[in-house]
Amino acid sequence: MLFRIILHDLLFEINGRVKNSFGQGIPRTVISLSDSNGNVQSAITNPFGYYKFTGLTAGEIYTVTASSKQYQFQNNPRVVTVLEDLLNEDFIGDANSFYKRE
User: Fold this and answer.
1) How far apart are CA 37 and CA 22, in angstroms?
2) Closest CA to 81 of 94, 64, 98, 96
3) 6, 8, 48, 90: which has the highest count of C-beta atoms within 10 A?
4) What is the pTM of this model?
């Protein structure tokens, strides 16, 4: 008997943490997830910097973007293809120069 997995029927998640260069979570960061059709979902990080998107279609290409008034993020935005759960899609933030103390 031959079994075929049809990817478009599978649902996955993307999750991660937004943190500063010291490894501390950055709360209230807006994470946006855009699919190839232009549909956008948003999440706000919890007090420890964690976020999660669930129910994502397998094989879909998504753009993940972190936004904050106080931080700029490395490797942002990033494009990912969901073929499995994408765990630990973390963002590292550097304080914007406007907020840095001299």
Assistant:
1) 36
2) 64
3) 90
4) 0.83
Q: Give the pLDDT confidence score for residue 101 in this predicted structure.
A: 47
Distance CA 38, CA 56 (A): 14
| 82's tokens | 């969901």
pLDDT digits (tens, 9 = 90+) for 2-53: 555 555 568 999 999 999 999 999 999 999 999 999 999 999 999 999 999 9
Record the tokens describing residue 35, joined without a space.
């699919």
Query: Considering just the CA atoms, what is the radius of gyration of the chain in Å?
Result: 16
CB 25 within 8 A of CB 19: yes
Residue type, 1: M
Instruction: Specify the range with the lowest mean pLDDT, choosing from 7-21, 38-52, 55-69, 76-90.
Output: 7-21
Please check whether residue 45 is in contact with residue 28, taking contact to mean a CB–CB distance below 8 angstroms. yes
- Look-up of token digits 């979902």: 41
Structure-token pair, residue 10: 């599978």
Q: How many helices (H) and strands (E) does the chain have?
A: 0, 8
